[in-house]
Amino acid sequence: METIPQRTLLRLPHPEALAHVNAYVQTRREQAAIDGSLEAFYTQQESHLLEGLARLQKSLTDSRTQRILHTLTQKYRDAEEHLPPHASMDDRAAARINKDHFPDGLHVVSDLDNTMTEGSHYLLQAIPASAIAEPLLAQKGREHFPRVFVETWQRALAQYPKLYARGGKESYAPLRGGVDACFAYLKHIGAKRSILSANFEPFVKGVLSRIPSVDRNVDVFAVKKDDIRSTDKGTYLQLLARQNPSRALIYIGDGASDLPSLEAQSVVACYFALEGSVFAQELAKAHIPHFTYRDFHDIQLKLVHMQQYQPQKVAA
What we know:
Layout: H1 6-9, H2 14-32, H3 36-58, H4 63-81, H5 89-96, E1 106-110, H6 123-126, H7 130-140, H8 145-151, H9 153-159, H10 161-169, H11 179-188, E2 192-200, H12 201-208, E3 219-223, H13 233-243, E4 248-253, E5 270-274, H14 278-285, E6 290-293, H15 296-308
Parallel strand pairs: 1-2, 1-4, 2-3, 4-5, 5-6
Helix pairs in contact: 3-8, 4-5, 10-12, 11-15
């Protein structure tokens, strides 16, 4: 099956364009089942992606990085040292973001899907090849993402990045309430702002283009055609902590896909988790400093409160 030029597909309504891409991706998968060279190509591409993940993990093992991460871990421990037993979550979080420890303020990192947006039902409607890939992931498990990616999304992402961007720019993904005001507040207080997503970079940037306060100063770490490192959120958060050690790191997530971020808990000041999510349940179970939210108005109110809050300390 021949590929259709991106400019041709962009003239079509989005659902029709996606149908063409999905049919092309499905045909390639069927060809791979009988074409050994295409199967070998998939294996080679998967190996390349896994090597990228391994390099990311290895980047945290050098002595300088280990010293920085150890210092950050100790800062958070020291921040809670003078709190009373069974200190409230407000006490713990406020102590951990204190400017005595982190003079440059906050670094707030947010997930995208079902965090900055409402739900994730739009994925099949908005993103090329997802109608083929998502059922495969559901069948095989998320740990097989690299292989499913090379068999489905990778070629589509390389050939049709503007279709991915259009899926984000159009209103398939409803924004969670308060997200624009919250990011404006973070900009106002001088916080560093980043997006860490296992979704695809053109789509993520398309969604963000609909949020006025998310400007070019907001860093985006998402999946690219030859780079899936953003799916390893635990390692990536440690990398971001290492790069910005004078800022208290806060992570905002929503569900099971954010559980790997807990691998970075020793260098994260506190978490925000969607109310009622498995992410919130795991944070509570592990007694990790966190707050729950229903929308970004909740997050902004809590951040304002944390900036003004004076933790209760044990009398000397």
